[in-house]
Amino acid sequence: MSYNIVTVSNGVILVALGGKNRANFERRWEIVFTGINSQSLDAKGRVIISPEYREELGESFYITLAFNKKPSIQVLGVAQFEHIRDQIRNMTADKAMRFQHLFIAPATLVTPNAQGRIQIPKTIRDLTRLDKDVMVLGMDNRVEIWDKATYEEFMQESMEESFADALELLKLF
User: Fold this and answer.
1) Among 12-26, 71-85, 117-131, the least confident range
2) What does the alpha-carbon distance between residue 87 and residue 144 come to, in Å, rounded to a whole number?
3) N or C: which end of the chain has fewer CB within 10 A?
4) CA pseudo-torsion sign 48, 56, 152, 71
C-alpha cells in the first residue's frame, strides 16, 4: 500500500492511502494529528482543543484514559472510540473487564463550547493528575492531554532510554 500526504495544516496531516497506481487507488483517508501545544486548564477544568484538531475529531468526541506508562488522557473521534470498544467486547472476559475499567468506564463524550474548550471531568483530572498547566499532543490517530510536569518527566525518561537504545543499536560507543 502506498500513501500520499495531501494536506498539512497546523497539526493535522491528511494522508491518502492506496495502491501502486491510480487505477488501484483506494478512496480512504487517514488523519494524522501532530504537534505539541502548551495550554492551561481554566478554573472549571476546561482546556482548549485547537480548531484543526476539532475539525477532524468531529462535533463531539470522546475523552478517556490513555494507554501510557504515565497517567494521561486520550481524545478520540466517535468512530475510533467505537472501534476500540468493539475490540474490547471481543476479548476474553478477564481482559475485557480490565480494559472496560481503564477505557470504557472513564470515557466521556464531550462537545466543545464556542471557544473550543472541553470540560474534563474531575474524576479524569484526578486520575491523570492534571493540574493547571497541561500539554495537548497530536499523536498520529488521536490527541493526548498530559499534566505538564508528568509529560516532562515522561519525556526525560523516554529520551534517556531511547538514547541508550540508539547507542547500543548503532554500536557508536
Assistant:
1) 12-26
2) 21
3) C
4) positive
State pLDDT tens for residues 154-165.
Answer: 999 888 777 777
Residue owning grid cell 478517556:
64
Contact criterion met (CB below 8 Å) for 129 and 150 = yes
Q: What digits encode the pLDDT tens for the residues 34-89?
A: 999 999 999 999 999 999 999 999 999 999 999 998 999 999 999 999 999 999 99
Q: What is the DSSP letter of 100?
A: I
- 150 contact partners, CB below 8 Å, separation of at least 6: 70, 71, 72, 128, 129
Q: Which pTM does this prediction carry?
A: 0.79
Angle at 100 (CA atoms; ends 73, 80), nearest 5 degrees: 60
E strand or H helix at 15, and its extent? strand 12-18
Torsion angles phi and psi, residue 64, rounded to 5: -160, 180
